[in-house]
């Protein structure tokens, strides 16, 4: 065996700390390189994806004006008497290069009811703003009751039309289209002070819904567990100063960003791993040499390096499993050769906990902070329980004496040795 089973000195601890610091610097460099590479790839892919899928879709509310026969040149702003809108959002994330993009398809249908409550004939003009000039629209339809005006060409970013309503007459403007977008979808109430009988129903094909900070929450919602879909409803019978309605697409985990974040937090994993090995080495009288810790650090680093580049080729979870298995094999095999089974079992358990499980939490939204907290508390509890009966004065006394540095036998085991010596043979 290559270990020194007796000596653990202050100099050794300093060397181990220097090794941990050097490897931490390597992780920071790796994380920075991955972040830079990922950001560059994101900018490139974002441009090309937006050209194909279009930007975020922001649909504005129908704009309506009317004029009377007495003053045809004076337009008065108005609002539909009722609005019934159906939106279907189909989330279809696409990978471009190294990045996943939050792309989606939207099917939009709206019925706007206009009622002339006056005693005179009125001429109504409306504009239906299209969400974006950079998007393509499919299956576009425009109807006034049963009259089809789907051939109306857009002008200045919107569909413009006019109609005459007699006193007491009502008409329904029906508009539908399908298009694609990225990141988010919104329904905007620009310059709308008050709305009546407004209802928007939204169906999503994803379960992870997220409403934008500046948008309102639905008045009713229902989750279909069988289909993993949400039915959301915004029902506004009469609302002054209505807030926009918006939906963010689910966050897409980009492997490059995940690998970079795991690399930045890797020194914390290594610190806990080293702490467990050092203290269990003291307890069992098998203290590893600093060179052993150097190779163990390399085994840790191999996981992050392999995971970072495998994610370019295969699915992120499969890349994680392969990198984790390789690292566990490297460290387990090395410790078996260096110290036998004395520390191998403890090391593999610690590595699985601090490297595999801790790093795996980064693959899920919101799991990192909790995993760090629970891991730190569990480590503290383990070390407190394992070292509670160690005579630390004796430990440091031996560590500071030249040529000694022996690992003390824990008091919990010393009385068993004395009983064995005093018992009759």
Report the sheet-strand fraction. Answer: 25-35%
Unreliable parts: 1-6, 404-425
Provide the structure class: alpha+beta
What number is the mean pLDDT?
84
What's the structural domain tally? 2
Helical content band: 40-55%
Q: What does the main sheet amount to? A: 8 strands, mixed
Per DSSP E runs of 2 or more residues, the count of β-strands stands at 17
Please report the number of helical segments.
Answer: 8
Distance between the termini: 33 Å
Strand order within the widest sheet? Answer: 10-9-12-7-4-14-16-15
| Radius of gyration, taken over Cα atoms and rounded to an integer in Å | 34 Å
Which term fits the overall shape?
A: elongated
Order of helices and strands: HEEEEEEEEEEEEEEEEEHHHHHHH
Oligomer: single chain
Biased composition (Polar residues): 403-425
Keywords: Membrane, Transmembrane, Transmembrane helix
Organism: Oceaniferula marina
Protein name: Inner membrane CreD family protein
Description:
The chain crosses the membrane at residues 12-30, 264-283, 290-310, 316-335, 342-363, 369-392. InterPro entries: Uncharacterised_IM_CreD. Residues 403-425 have a biased composition (Polar residues). This is Inner membrane CreD family protein. It is a single chain. By secondary structure, the chain is an alpha+beta fold. The chain folds into 2 domains: 10-40 and 254-415, no CATH class; 57-182 and 184-248, Immunoglobulin-like (Sandwich), CATH 2.60.40. 42% of the residues lie in helices and 29% in strands. The chain is built from 8 helices and 17 strands. It has an 8-stranded mixed β-sheet. It starts with 9 loop residues before the first helix and ends with a helix. Residues 1-6 and 404-425 have low confidence and may be disordered.
């Amino acid at each position: 065996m290559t270990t020194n089973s007796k000596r653990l000195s202050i100099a050794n601890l300093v060397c181990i700390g220097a090794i941990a610091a050097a490897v931490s610097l390597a992780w920071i460099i790796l994380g920075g390189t991955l972040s830079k590479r990922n950001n560059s790839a994101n900018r490139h892919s974002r441009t090309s994806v937006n050209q194909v899928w279009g930007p975020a879709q922001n649909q504005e509310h129908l704009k309506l004006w009317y004029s009377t026969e007495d003053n045809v040149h004076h337009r008065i702003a108005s609002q539909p008497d009722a609005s019934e809108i159906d939106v279907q959002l189909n989330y279809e994330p696409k990978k471009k290069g190294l990045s996943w993009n939050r792309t989606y398809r939207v099917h939009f249908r709206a019925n706007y009811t206009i009622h002339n409550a006056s005693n005179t004939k009125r001429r109504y003009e409306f504009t239906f703003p299209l969400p974006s000039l950079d998007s393509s629209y499919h299956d576009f339809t425009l109807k006034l009751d049963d009259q089809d005006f789907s051939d109306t060409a857009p002008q200045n970013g919107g569909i413009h039309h006019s109609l005459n309503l007699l006193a007491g007459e009502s008409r329904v403007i029906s508009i539908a289209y399908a298009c694609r977008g990225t990141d988010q979808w919104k329904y905007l109430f620009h310059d709308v002070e008050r709305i009546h009988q407004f209802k928007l129903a939204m169906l999503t094909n994803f379960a992870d819904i997220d409403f934008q900070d500046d948008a309102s929450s639905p008045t009713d919602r229902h989750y279909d567990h069988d289909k993993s879909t949400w039915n959301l409803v915004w029902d506004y019978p009469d609302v002054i100063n209505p807030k926009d309605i918006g939906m963010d697409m689910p966050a897409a985990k980009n492997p490059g960003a995940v690998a970079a974040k795991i690399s930045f937090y890797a020194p914390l994993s290594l610190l806990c791993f080293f702490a467990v090995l050092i203290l269990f080495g003291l307890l069992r009288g098998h203290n590893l040499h600093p060179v052993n810790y150097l190779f163990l650090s390399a085994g840790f680093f191999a996981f992050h390096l392999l995971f970072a580049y495998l994610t370019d080729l295969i699915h992120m979870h499969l890349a994680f499993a392969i990198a984790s298995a390789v690292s566990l094999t490297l460290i387990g095999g090395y410790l078996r050769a260096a110290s036998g089974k004395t520390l191998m079992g403890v090391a593999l358990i610690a590595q699985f906990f601090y490297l595999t499980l801790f790093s795996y939490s980064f693959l899920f939204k919101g799991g990192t902070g909790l995993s760090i907290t629970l891991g730190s508390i569990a480590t503290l509890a383990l070390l407190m329980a394992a070292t509670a009966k160690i005579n630390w004065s004796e430990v440091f006394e031996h560590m500071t004496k030249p040529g000694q540095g022996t690992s003390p036998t824990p008091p919990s085991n010393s009385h068993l040795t004395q009983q064995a010596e005093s018992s009759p043979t």
